[in-house]
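Standup notes
- DV: blocked on the single-chain target, sequence here:
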Amino acid sequence: MQKLTNRQRAVLDFISTSIHERGFPPTLREIGDHLGIRSTNGVNDHLRALERKGYLTREDMKSRTLRLIAQPDGEGVTASLRPASPLASADDGLVEVPIVGRVAAGALSEAIESPEDTVRIDRVLLGGRREVFGLRIFGESMIDAGIFDGDYVFVQKQLEARRGEIVVALVGDDATCKYYYPEADHIRLQPANRQMAPILVPKNDWRSTQILGVVVGIYRKLA
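- DV (later): unblocked, structure below
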């Protein structure tokens, strides 16, 4: 197998340690934080190199689906290594939710990014829904609805919404999380923060594909 650079070896060692100690691989962000790599694109560059050199595989660019194929020892000799991951275990009570990136909850700032992770949660918490993805909230425009900066929202993928539902909508190239109100001549995307103004999109400019989904749940880390 091809020789690794020092940084590629460090990435592989960290993934292996995480699998052995926790039972599952690290996220892109955890790899970056551990090795001082600022961007997820930088982490992805190293993972692609490790895939190309035959040391690991992953599905759909998700860090939680990383699988080690081989790991070099101190002399560069490889040994087979295929650790089991909890994500691979069958459990009809759980559903795997992709964390597809970030969404602004304030001024429009960033479009939905590439999938970066997955989580498994009890299907009951999602009301049995299946086409659900997760997004991280940045900003304070939905605080009166109990959605705060840093929270993760679970979103049912769909193109339509009822009046007053909280949606993730695409405006131009950017995504935002707001209440959805269709009005006579425009679509009002209403923040849940009295200090912030709504986003008004003329109906002539609104497209059916602009609603990405309806928020069905919230996850917040308590520590």
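- Follow-up: The first helix runs from residue 6 to 22.
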